[in-house]
């Protein structure tokens, strides 16, 4: 039983450690960034993924690819 709890804890930590990205583009306004991010996040939702929260079902790599297709440059948050 203790092993199952530890495994669950590790899985939760792994989900929290997913890469976070910042996006830039010449002439970018905060409003445009918000609109594009929301669009890409909707496209990257994976309802078939098991997660305890909605954000756990978000495919960050798919968001990044979508934003790059829109002309953004992605950089990793530190």
Beginning-to-end CA distance, first to last residue: 36 Å
Q: How many beta strands in the DSSP annotation?
A: 2
- The helix tally amounts to 3
Alpha-carbon Rg, integer: 15 Å
**Strands side by side in the biggest sheet:** 1-2
Order of helices and strands: HEHHE
Name the shape in a single word.
Answer: elongated
Indicate the structural class: mainly alpha
Which parts are unreliable, with pLDDT below 50 for 5 consecutive residues or more? 3-15
- Taken as a percent bin, the fraction of beta residues is 5-15%
Q: How would you describe what is shown here?
A:
The chain has 78 residues and is mainly alpha-helical. It has one domain. It is 50% helix and 10% strand. The protein has a two-stranded antiparallel sheet with strand order 1-2. The radius of gyration is 15 Å and the shape is elongated. The model is unreliable at 3-15 (pLDDT under 50).
A few lines on this structure:
This protein has 78 residues and is mainly alpha-helical. It has helices at 2-16, 30-43, 60-69, and strands at residues 21-24, 73-76. It has one domain.
SSE order and pairing:
Elements: H1 2-16, E1 21-24, H2 30-43, H3 60-69, E2 73-76
Antiparallel strand pairs: 1-2
Question: Which key terms come to mind for this protein?
Answer:
single chain; 78 residues; mainly alpha; two-stranded antiparallel ribbon; 2 strands; 10% strand; elongated; disordered N terminus
């Amino acid at each position: 039983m203790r092993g199952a709890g530890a495994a669950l804890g590790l899985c939760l930590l792994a989900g929290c450690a997913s890469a976070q990205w910042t996006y830039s583009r010449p002439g970018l306004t905060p409003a445009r960034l918000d609109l594009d991010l929301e669009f890409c996040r909707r496209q990257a939702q994976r309802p078939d993924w098991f997660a305890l929260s909605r954000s756990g079902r978000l495919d960050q790599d798919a968001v990044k690819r979508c934003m790059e297709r829109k002309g953004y440059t992605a950089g990793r948050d530190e």
